[in-house]
Amino acid sequence: MPAPQGYSRTQILLHWAIAALLVPQFLFDDGISGAFRTLMKEGSATTTTGAWVHIVPGVAIFVLVLWRLALRLTRGAPEAPGEPSLQRTAGIVVHWLLYALLLIMPVTGMMAWFGAIGAAGEVHEILQNLLLVLIGLHVAAALWHQFGLKDNLLNRMRQPEA
After folding, report:
1. Distance from CA of residue 30 to its chain's centroid?
2. 87 exposed, middle or buried (CB, 10 Å; 0-12, 13-18, 19+)?
3. What band does 43 get if pLDDT is binned at 50, 70 and 90?
4. Domain for residue 72, yes or no?
5. Which residues constitute the domain of residue 25?
6. What is the pLDDT of residue 111?
7. Residue 3 domain-assigned?
């Protein structure tokens, strides 16, 4: 199947919905962190509003990423922009690592919370840091393409393919 020239409206909406759900996951993780410490220390914890504010968007991210991956695998995605090939390869690798982490993180989070598995919580925290690095690389590369290379790359995530 030939690669489409742009992303579909649904792919764009999923991209930005996932991004919007990720922001509070990083900014407001105190509620779940405190509740998880209680769970590990006392063997049980009340699922507070702060915990739910982390759990519900985490599950939503998981579902939306699955949907986005299904669309990518069935509809395709535009080709990665041009040269040099090392940058192109790095972009492809970062995108697939982002997908992987956005699936693995909710799983480790659910294992930690619902299964009271401390090791899963530790993995979840480590992956959080890696995810932040990858998101930073993704944003920096998009801005570099838009303002450094001036190849109008950001329009692919703003305007659906006609």
Report:
1. 19
2. middle
3. confident
4. yes
5. 9-157
6. 96
7. no
